[in-house]
Design a protein that fits this description.
Helix content: 10-25%
Radius of gyration: 15 Å
Largest sheet: 9 strands, mixed
CATH architecture: Roll
Order of helices and strands: EHEEEEHEHEEE
Number of strands: 9
Structural class: alpha+beta
Distance between the termini: 13 Å
Bound molecules: cobalt (II) ion
Number of helices: 3
Shape: globular
CATH superfamily: 2,3-Dihydroxybiphenyl 1,2-Dioxygenase, domain 1
Length: about 130
């Protein structure tokens, strides 16, 4: 069912510092910061030849990554995103296999303008999984 790795998201306490690390130390191509108020994050996209890295910094009081950063002060891998061809079919198949879909189970439009869902980390080896329809 899952296809390509779309991105790995890393939550960071200091987006400017993390961006400079990827740009200057790792020599990666980085985007300008993009505020995503609907998702409670500011994002920097890092384009790699085969996938993307997204650096996420909390935005606003109810950021979904605030708790994660409380527990992981230096930041850390927050989620991995796999591509699927049909998100509703993928959701139904996952639920039928016992996987928990977070939220109300309805896809939301993600940072790339495409429908996404998140799957419970306890069902996926401790890793928060995002699926994105491409
Ligand atoms: Co993501």
């Amino acid at each position: 069912m899952i296809g390509r790795l779309n991105h790995v998201a890393i939550a960071v306490p200091d987006l400017a510092k993390a961006t400079a690390l990827y740009r200057d130390t790792l020599g990666a191509k980085v985007s300008a910061p993009q505020a995503e108020p609907a998702h409670g994050v500011t994002v920097v996209f890092i384009e790699l030849p085969n996938t993307k890295i997204e650096l996420l910094e909390p935005l606003g009081a109810n950021s979904p990554i605030a708790k994660f950063l409380e527990k992981n002060g230096e930041g850390g891998i927050h989620h991995i995103c796999y591509e699927v061809a049909d998100i509703l079919a993928a959701r139904d198949q996952l639920k039928a296999k016992g996987a928990r879909v977070l939220g109300d189970g309805q896809p939301k439009i993600g940072a790339h303008g495409k429908p996404v869902l998140f799957l419970h980390p306890k069902d996926f080896n401790g890793a928060l999984v995002e699926i994105e329809q491409v």
